[in-house]
Specification:
The complex is a heterodimer of chains A (968) and B (297). Chain A has 46 helices and 4 strands. By secondary structure, chain A is mainly alpha-helical. Chain A has a two-stranded antiparallel ribbon with strand order 1-2. Chain A has a two-stranded antiparallel sheet with strand order 3-4. The longest helix of chain A is centred in the N-terminal third of the chain and has 27 residues. In chain B, 1% of the residues lie in helices and 57% in strands. Chain B has 1 helix and 21 strands. The longest helix of chain B is centred in the first third of the chain and has 4 residues. Classes of the chains: A mainly alpha (968), B mainly beta (297). Chains A and B meet through helix 12, helix 13, helix 14, helix 16 and helix 17 of A and strand 17 and strand 18 of B.
């Protein structure tokens, strides 16, 4: 109650002026001037013209479309939907490549490729390299054994042919490192890699400091490591690491000889052996002779292969003859196929035209293959506890590489021949596997049925069949088999896949085939596949080890099924999602689904299937968000949720809505401000929408719904962190509740916001800066006051209890020193009170009885208002008195003028005391020369103008009593 | 004080033949002018023979026969006593490689007991106070190409326990059969030795297969001689348990300097052989020997 305020005796008794609002409106309204389309007007709807390049496939290079929207574009969706710089870049590249590929420059490029032998469509070694490194790893301990001075006794030092100087240097080196055998045991894989890198560095250093012999020794020692097959699982990676060193060495030698060629003028990149001078040739020959005398086979082969490129300096004929020599030399030794792959690699680099040697290489390899089953290999494997299938997989990179080289732009006939050869070898699974992955997908796809037949005939023991089907699936994912065969292929493949017992094998294979299924079949088949995967992966929670693959399945499905009504009508899709039980993964998956949804669903949807499913997805994602979750992820999720709900038209029928709301609630409780604010707004919007649909007459059902909406907001708002968000949302929700005739809810909202006010801090941080909250608070309270006009009094509470409560809060709030905020709010409250005392209110809420009807202008009610007003005026006047000091005179003037204006607008100035008060206030505001002359003049004019209105004659007299200050 | 003397031959590979002209420049680099008593060049080709320690006692009788054999020698004065100006001075020279009488310039060869070496030595004589400067440089001589056409002489071979000689206990040997072929035992020194080899069967896994190049040097004359075989190089051609039935290439480049065309003279002989060495996993060592004849064409 207003006990604080009523205590003070006020000198002035209040009488509200009667305001004929409608007449005022009619008199004061300015005619609207229509704005032409082209005219500028700040309030005109924003028109966005967005120009977007269409897909490169279109013939018309680019078409620009301009769309005008009635509201500002959603910055978020434009961020997500718009052409991002990267895809624009890609599109541009695509554009560029289309004409050139067929045009003349395309031919030129092809010619150039012919020259170089290898086109851009050839997958380079470098990509293979990292693939291998990532795939073949070990946890076992490795060892490096380097005998730096070992060669001395056994072979005549290869360097001694060069000169005395070299010979002595070599001897020095030998002395230096004699017996400096370094054996490093128990190295972890990382240590090993580091050691090899160190060797690579010391090779470069040795070379740079002109210690060529030392460099050669390092290289030899490194390649010797390749003959060590201990820890065979790591071998392919080891191979890659060591060939890196060899590459470095080869490059160093080549560069050195190359610089020797350029005596004075720069040496051309494309040269013939005739251009090379004798010194360079001699140096080059020396290298070859040195290397030819390396005792051990493997180092000799590798080092020779490393510098094979240098043959360019000697003669053209050399290259091919040596290459074939090398390929002939490559025999025996475990994992010799790796060695062959190196040859193929170098072969491709040096002379890609020499396909013959490659082919022969491959056929030789087929012959050597039987070696795998020899006793010694078996024993070795037994010793290392490696199973045959695992062992065979070690070969795959090498075989694959060779086949890739062989099949690169190879004629069909050759490929067919290769296939035949494989068949002759009893459908050797390893080869079949590599054939499928290395040959052109189109080739494989066209013969997919044959391949399936061959796979079936393969020896089960050797190479795991799921890998074969995996390779086939990969080919089929990028090339289409004949239409008639497709179903047969899928059935055959899946028959095998579904029988795989190991979940890991199963999912690896299934993941690949999902793409084929999605590509050619309908949701029915995909659904079947999904249910099969669920069946396989659920026992023993096998899915826990297969998240990457399962994610990939989702990705593939999303690529092919972008129509969400189809996607979500797959029964097993959501159960499939349930397998993602690790939070981070689940968030990731849900996110990708939502991203696709946002990208593909341009129109807001109200399809219940989509909505339900999407809510499930959102909920799942939401539940996975934990406090620990990275802030960045949280933010992006928020954006996604926001976008999703912008796309969904949630309103349909109240029943659904309630469900939706509950779900929304579930979906959001862990999110921070912006999303929650958004949802509160959405819920309010929903309620208003319902009201619109029901034309303001709620049925029982809808009434319950809007109450539910209010309840949602009421429980959500307290969890917001920003106090002003809370206040504003309380107010808004209160207004909405009022509009929906939920009086007690509205009351609760408003009460809540009033009781929240004392908590408003005096300053708050805005954009990282500390700012006074006073402005916000004034704005809010003013807004709140105008709402209070239509809020009917609670039957169990006293008259105007909300207004009183607010005023009490205002009085008790610790305002800033030297601030007039409190008093200004009193003046605002005065306006409200004046409005409340009118017979007909300025505005009202349809179907809600405001105080005007409740009290019907009851004199008791008016008296109550007047009493309050008196108190308020007294407060203002008291405050004015305190502003009499020199430095506050300006404030005094402004405040006095403000009160004066209020009196003019709201008070009945026919009352003498009020009239006198107004005149006093006027003169107070003018007294010290701080009044704004223009405002004063216009106020006077207004008063004069008002005097012409009926019942306002007293204003003319008033105007006469208001002297303007004279400037001195 | 820092005066350097160097010989640079015109040919980068330093290879010359009989009848050709050995040409090049003497390079003197000095910061200040150099006073000298004359600069001379001497060229010499010598065969050095040496007896192995095991032969020394036995053949003391013909110690005399192992004194160096001079093949060619020459001496010219490049510059008369005087002064070489400061900076870099290049003095060209030419030596015709002509032999006296019926002597032949054998090909350069660096062996253990036989060395055929050609050197060029430059001397700068200086006053008593300054030390004489000298510089030696080796140049290579390749013997004259062979006149008649070289016919390939292929050799097929089979190695089984039965074909082996020098076996103490034949019964302890594991079973094996290796077949092979050398494309020619008459080899052109600049071309690799080629052939192939097939391990047809082997009871014990093969550990390694190697080609051992051996020089056989003989010193002495009709009265008595020392013959020593030593390894030049050992090249592995197969490692590990090779794939049975698969032809393994035999391929070896003849090292320069350490090989020369097969040489037979009255005082010494240089011959070459190749051993195909198969090492089994139980460390059995099976060696098959092939004499080679090297030619230059």
């Amino acid at each position: 109650s207003g006990s604080h305020l009523t205590a003070k005796m006020s000198a002035v008794q209040w009488h509200s002026r009667n305001r004929p609002y409608e007449a005022e409106l009619a008199a004061g309204c300015l005619g609207a001037v229509p704005v032409e389309a082209g005219d500028y007007h700040p309030l005109k709807p924003i028109t966005v013209t967005d120009t977007r390049t269409r897909r490169p496939g279109r013939k018309g290079s680019s078409s620009s479309s301009s769309s005008s929207s009635s509201s500002a574009p959603d910055p978020l969706s434009s961020m997500l939907d718009g052409t991002d710089p990267l895809s624009m870049f890609a599109a541009a590249a695509g554009d560029a490549s289309v004409p050139t590929a067929s045009g003349e420059s395309g031919r030129k490029r092809r010619e150039k490729e012919e020259e170089e032998g290898v086109g851009i469509d050839f997958e380079p070694w470098a990509t293979k390299r990292s693939e291998i490194l990532a795939r073949f790893t070990t946890t076992e301990k490795l060892s490096i054994n380097l005998f730096m001075g070992l060669d001395k006794g056994k072979a005549p030092s290869p360097g001694s042919a060069v000169s005395e100087k070299v010979r002595t240097r070599l001897e020095e080196l030998d002395d230096l490192e004699e017996g400096s055998q370094k054996e490093m045991l128990n190295l972890s894989q990382q240590d090993y890699v580091n050691r090899i890198e160190e060797l690579n560095q010391s090779l470069k250093e040795a070379w740079a400091s002109d210690q060529k012999v030392r460099a050669l020794k390092i290289v030899i020692q490194c390649s010797k490591l390749l003959s060590d097959t201990a820890v065979i699982q790591f071998y392919p990676s080891k191979f890659v690491l060591i060939t890196d060193i060899l590459d470095t060495f080869g490059r160093l030698v080549y560069e050195r000889i190359w610089t020797m060629c350029s005596d004075s003028k720069p040496f051309p990149e494309s040269f013939s052996p005739e251009d090379v001078n004798d010194t360079a040739k001699e140096t080059c020959l020396n290298w070859f002779f040195k290397i030819a005398s390396i005792r051990e086979l493997i180092p000799r082969l590798y080092v020779e292969a490393a510098i094979l490129k240098c043959h360019r300096f000697l003669s053209k004929a050399w290259v091919s003859s040596n290459l074939s020599n090398l390929s002939k030399l490559l025999m025996s030794a475990p994992l010799v196929i790796c060695h062959r792959s190196l040859l193929a690699q170098i072969g491709m680099e040096v002379s890609p035209h020499l396909k013959d040697s490659l082919n022969r290489n491959f056929f030789d390899l087929l012959t050597t293959f039987q070696q795998v089953h020899s006793d010694s290999v078996q024993n070795q494997l037994l010793l290392q506890h490696v199973e045959i299938p695992a062992y065979l997989i070690l070969y795959s990179p090498a075989v694959h590489w060779i086949l890739q080289c062989v099949s690169y732009r190879a004629p069909e006939a050759l490929l067919t021949e290769m296939m035949e050869r494989c068949k002759q070898l009893g459908n050797n699974a390893l080869l079949l596997n590599s054939v499928m992955s290395a040959f052109r997908p189109e080739f494989v796809a066209a013969r997919a049925t044959d391949f399936i037949g061959m796979i079936k005939e393969c020896d089960e023991a050797g190479f795991p069949k799921h890998l074969l089907f995996g390779s086939l699936g990969r080919s089929l994912a990028s090339a289409d088999p004949p239409e008639a065969d497709r179903l047969g292929i899928l059935n055959e493949a899946w028959k095998v896949i579904t029988k795989l017992r190991s979940p890991q094998d199963y999912i690896n294979c299934a993941e690949i085939w999902v793409e084929f299924t999605c590509r050619h079949f309908t949701k029915r088949e995909v659904n079947t596949v999904l249910s099969d995967i669920i069946k396989h992966m659920t026992p023993d929670r096998a899915f826990e080890d297969a998240y990457p693959q399962l994610q990939s399945v989702i990705r593939k499905i999303l690529t092919y099924f972008q129509d969400f009504s189809v996607l979500f009508s797959m029964e097993r899709f959501l159960p499939f999602l349930d397998m993602f039980q690790k939070d981070s993964v689940r968030v990731e998956v849900c996110r990708s689904i939502m991203e696709v949804f946002i990208r593909c669903q341009q129109e807001p949807t109200r399809d219940p299937v989509i909505l339900n499913a999407l809510l499930h997805v959102c909920k799942t994602m939401h539940d996975s968000v934990k406090i620990k979750t990275n802030i960045g992820i949280k933010c992006s999720l928020k954006l996604l949720l926001y976008c999703i709900f912008r796309r969904c038209k949630i309103v349909k029928s109240p029943c659904d809505e309630t469900f939706v709301l509950i779900s929304v609630k579930l979906c959001t409780c862990r999110f921070e401000n912006p999303v929650l604010v958004f949802f509160c707004q959405t819920v309010n919007q929903l309620a208003m929408e319902t009201r619109r649909v029901m034309r303001g007459n709620h049925s029982r059902k809808t009434a319950a719904f809007v109450r539910a909406c209010a309840a949602y907001s009421f429980i959500t708002i307290p969890s917001l962190t920003s106090i002003f968000s809370r206040l504003n949302l309380y107010l808004l929700s209160g207004q909405v509740a009022l509009a929906n005739q939920c009086l007690s809810q509205a009351d609760a909202f408003l009460k809540a916001s009033v009781s929240l006010l004392p908590e408003v801090p005096r300053s708050l941080s805005v954009d990282g800066k500390l700012r006074s909250s006073e402005g916000f608070l004034l704005e809010f309270i003013n807004n709140f006051l105008s709402t209070l006009l239509v809020v009917p009094d609670h039957p169990e509470q006293g008259v105007l209890y909300l207004v009183r409560g607010l005023l009490n809060i205002i009085q008790d709030y610790t305002w800033e020193d030297n601030s007039d905020a409190k008093v200004r709010l009193y003046i605002s409250a005065l306006h409200l009170l004046a409005a409340l005392s009118q017979e007909n209110y300025l505005y009202c809420v349809p179907k809600v009885d405001s105080n005007e009807t409740l009290y019907g202008g009851d004199p008791k009610f008016v008296a109550e208002i007047n009493k309050l007003c008196e108190t308020l005026i007294g407060q203002v006047l008291d405050h004015l008195k305190t502003l009499g000091r020199e430095e506050t005179l300006r404030r005094q003037s402004s405040l006095a003028f403000s009160l004066f204006s209020s009196l003019v607008a709201h008070a009945d100035l026919r009352n003498n005391r009020l009239n006198q008060l107004a005149i006093n206030l006027w003169s107070l505001s003018q007294r010290h020369g701080f009044a704004d002359t223009r405002t004063s003049v216009r106020t006077l004019e207004f008063i004069k103008q008002q005097s012409r209105q009926p019942d306002m004659a007293h204003f003319s007299e008033l105007a006469l009593r208001l002297p303007l200050q004279t400037r001195t | 004080m820092s005066t350097s003397l160097d010989i640079r031959l015109k040919r980068a590979n330093k290879v010359y033949h009989e009848g050709e002209v050995l040409a090049g420049v003497v390079v003197i680099v000095s910061k200040e002018a150099v006073q000298h008593q004359g600069i001379s060049l001497s060229m010499e080709g010598v065969v050095n023979l040496q007896l192995s320690s095991k032969s020394v006692g036995v053949f003391e009788a013909f110690y005399n026969s192992v004194k160096p054999i001079q093949l060619i020698s020459g001496n010219i004065e490049v510059v008369k006593p005087g002064k070489v100006p400061s900076g870099k001075t290049e003095i060209p020279f030419e030596f015709p490689l002509h032999v006296k009488g019926n002597k032949v310039l054998y090909e350069t060869y660096h062996g253990v007991f036989v060395n055929i070496q050609y050197t060029l030595r430059c001397d700068m004589k200086r006053s008593l106070l300054a030390k004489d400067l000298s510089k030696t440089c080796e140049f290579m001589v390749h013997s004259q190409p062979q006149k008649e056409k070289l016919l390939p002489s292929p050799v097929d071979f089979t190695i089984t326990p039965e074909t082996l000689q020098n076996v103490r206990e034949r019964s302890g040997l594991p079973r094996f059969q290796i077949r092979g072929r050398l494309n020619s035992t008459s080899c052109v020194i600049t071309q690799p030795l080629t052939g192939e080899l097939v391990v047809e069967s082997s009871e014990v896994p093969v550990k390694s297969i190697e080609l051992q190049l051996v020089r056989v040097e003989t010193c002495g004359c009709a009265e008595g001689y020392a013959r020593d075989a030593t390894e030049i190089q050992n090249i592995q051609i197969a490692e590990g348990d090779v794939c049975h039935g698969l032809p393994i290439p035999i391929y070896m480049v003849f090292p320069r300097l350490f090989t020369c065309p097969t040489l037979e003279t009255t005082n010494f002989k240089v011959e070459f052989e190749v051993n195909i060495v198969t090492v089994l996993h139980d460390d059995h060592l099976i060696t098959e020997n092939f004499p080679l004849k090297l030619y230059r064409v």
